[in-house]
Amino acid sequence: MAEVSTTAPILQLAGVCKAFGDAEVLHGIDLAVERGEVVAVLGPSGSGKTTLLRCANLLEHADAGELALDGAHFDLARVTAKEAAEIRRNTAFVFQSYNLFRNRTVLGNVTEGLVVAHRMPKDEAREIAVRCLERVGMADRLDAYPVQLSGGQQQRVAIARAMATSPKVVYFDEPTSALDPELTVEVLGVMRDLAQDGMTMVVVTHEMGFARNVADRVVFMEHGVVQAEAPAREFFDHPANERVRAFLDTIR
Ligand code: ADP
């Protein structure tokens, strides 16, 4: 569990708005995450959880909103190319569908970002990549290609890739929803280890066990607004309002 911090949050989003055509999907979202904190973002399908992560990491262009990342401030609606590169260099994103390079080996997938975006010498990149792959239990498959791996193994490689650049925040977008239950367990185990190591994580998930037992805090979204937020245990044991109670009823 993260200790209560007296310093500024490492990540702060304020007033994030996003519409797709006429459909306004995010109605001014505020979110603050402390260093080392694990925040689970929960909510019904279509409530805007994925869009929020994608706006925070510039995979979608927000219509309005501020981002503060470890003291650096950005206007999400007007980021310059240089600012975008800075935001991307300091954050990482783990996708539901892994998004590994199919024509690169396990090792190549992890070194790529270090060599290209972080301009690291190849030897150094290899050393870091091997260390991260050891961390997720994939160091014995360095030369394998994604197609030769299970979904759970691919996702563990994707997590190693995300860790390799020492990001300030890692966003996880439903990282286990494409996986069978036994593979889900192995990926959640890796995520739990990283959380215990102090990685700052924002995790969109349907895994209530993970949210309850690993996350420090739960943010509950519905219809593009944050309906409730609470320490994880409190969120489940003492639902803040009727909307949370109704959501928990649908998954119990
Ligand atoms: P959640 O992650 O909570 O399931 P999403 O952020 O994926 O919700 O989606 C929120 C809403 O935005 C949904 O109604 C979805 O259909 C819509 N949406 C998401 N991405 C796009 C897109 N690229 N174009 C149009 N509508 C989108």
UniProtKB/TrEMBL annotation:
Cellular component GO terms, alphabetical: plasma membrane
Alphabetic keyword roster: ATP-binding, Cell membrane, Membrane, Nucleotide-binding, Transport
Gene: glnQ
Organism of provenance: Enorma massiliensis
Domain ABC transporter: 11-248
PANTHER family: AMINO ACID IMPORT ATP-BINDING PROTEIN, L-CYSTINE IMPORT ATP-BINDING PROTEIN TCYN
UniProt GO molecular function: ABC-type amino acid transporter activity; ATP binding; ATP hydrolysis activity
Cellular localization per UniProt: Cell membrane
Membrane topology classification: Peripheral membrane protein
InterPro entries: AAA+_ATPase (IPR003593), ABC_ATPase_HisP-typ (IPR030679), ABC_transporter-like_ATP-bd (IPR003439), ABC_transporter-like_CS (IPR017871), MetN_ABC_transporter-like (IPR050086), P-loop_NTPase (IPR027417)
Protein name from the UniProt record: Glutamine ABC transporter ATP-binding protein
Family annotation (SUPFAM superfamilies): P-loop containing nucleoside triphosphate hydrolases
